[in-house]
Amino acid sequence: MTSDASFTTHVTQRLAALPGVAAVALGGSRAQGRHRPDSDWDFAVYYRDGFTPDAIRGLGWPGEVSEFGAWGGGVFNGGARLTVEDRAIDLHYRELADVERRLAEAREGRFEVERLMFHLAGVPTYLVVAELAVNRVLFGDLPRPSYPAALRRAAHARWSDDARLTLAYADRAHAAHGHVTDVAGAIGRAACEAAHAVSAGRGEWVTNEKTLLDRAGLRDVDEIAGRLTASTLSGAIADTRALLDGALTASRPN
């Protein structure tokens, strides 16, 4: 098997040669030096007119290649799951016009939250801006944005409100009825929402939820969730609220 450096060069050169591709970036744990030997490889192709999923299929790499929009649209508008030299690759399509629009919105403190599989709190549309900031550019030129002050304020406020409302609804609609599963789900979601707020308040980019609670210092929520019973739901919600409120207050931007 080739070295990691040779493998990265090989994949980058093949992707960069495709019509319409303006840049290629490496993301995920491998871009940040936190990967394990079995970690997959996350690549993104940044493109303008002329790029098509058929160009990826034409590389001849085994796997599944989606059409544009097949992954639900929004910030995840498609990609591929491929195997190259016995290594697993996740490839994301990134249309530069959309990325530039999201960057302009982020600088003004505007964003939306989209539903996405495997994300308890959903995914903010400034995800693509976070990728620009933390991913490693392998080919082409891409903006390398700092965290906009307007986004720090807006995202902290929005995620904080979402976390508090999630807990309030669970207390009102489920706790008194002994709905353990519903309350457990609400606690998990509220914790992730609060963690997004903490990260935004600190000006720390987030690209996934895998280490979100740890980075925000909210892993103690596990202990609260672990002692849920039908008779302890209101107390657990109160304890979660206290934990989250402390972190939200400490991370509120000036």
TrEMBL record:
Domain of life: Bacteria
Pfam families, per the entry: NTP_transf_2
Polymerase nucleotidyl transferase domain segment(s): 15-52
InterPro entries, alphabetized: NT_sf, Polymerase_NTP_transf_dom
UniProt-listed CDD domains: NT_KNTase_like (cd05403)
A GO term, aspect molecular function: nucleotidyltransferase activity
Name of the protein described by the UniProt record: Polymerase nucleotidyl transferase domain-containing protein
Organism annotation: Embleya hyalina
